[in-house]
What we know:
The chain is α/β, with parallel strands linked by helices. The chain has 12 helices and 12 strands.
Amino acid sequence: MGGADGQRQPRAGGHLDGADGRAVLCGAAAASAREGDGMIDPADAILVADDVQFGYRADQPVLCGVNMTVQRGRFVCVLGPNGSGKTTLLRCLLGQLTPSGGDIRLNGRAIRSYRPRELARTMAYVPQLPQSAFSFTAGEIVRMGRLSHTGVLGLTGENDRKVVQLAMEMTETTAFADRELEELSGGESQRVMIARGLAQQPGVILLDEPTSHLDVRHQITIYRMMARLAHDWQMAVVCVSHDVNLAGRFADELVLMKAGRVLADGPPGEVIRADVLSAAYDVSVELIETGDDQGPIMRAQ
């Protein structure tokens, strides 16, 4: 995937391109990660779900033995119909829910062994379009991402200010830093929330349907940004999505769920198949070839 609408889109100018920016936002380990050869060392598998089981009630399982591996420098999209367990899996990965069986490991450690502040320094979460009873500017919201580093008093130093600046440059939100969130468009608001996540300096960033309620242009912008976080900044990026076509176009790997189980996973070419998608969504699916390197487009019949 490449070209004007492909996965990797370098941005001219700015301070974030290069090892210095990666070191600030992602840490020295990510900055020195191997690039360009397309190979991922198994040691870079930093988020692992191993036979994860969960149910809100004992007689109603929601996750049934889910296995998933997210590697540094990879963009993974979790797909599936409503009720397939996508959001529940995301909450388990975040440590918000405790699996009834199996294990989730982050950097080789059980997710449950992390203290909240330590976890926030390692993993960031971007919810769906934010709503708040209070008025905050975009800049204030991004600075909130530093709380796991500065504490509740929010006393910031030069490094904190630099991280916030870089996060906003990366997401192109600097221009409206002084505007309140409620004044921004949906796409602008979502970029602010991603900037807040980057300000945590995580190795892993998880996003819950970040393009819901956005128009097509903003959807593509967000997907390009997620791909760049993985490819250029060597983060592990996990996105729950309903959009099979955009996920197949930008993600490195897809995890397709149905009824709490992984129905198929792997590169888009292995998952976006008419028979697999028809089985997942219980509808006849046709794949339309686009004639370029973006892959086929799914259309329900």
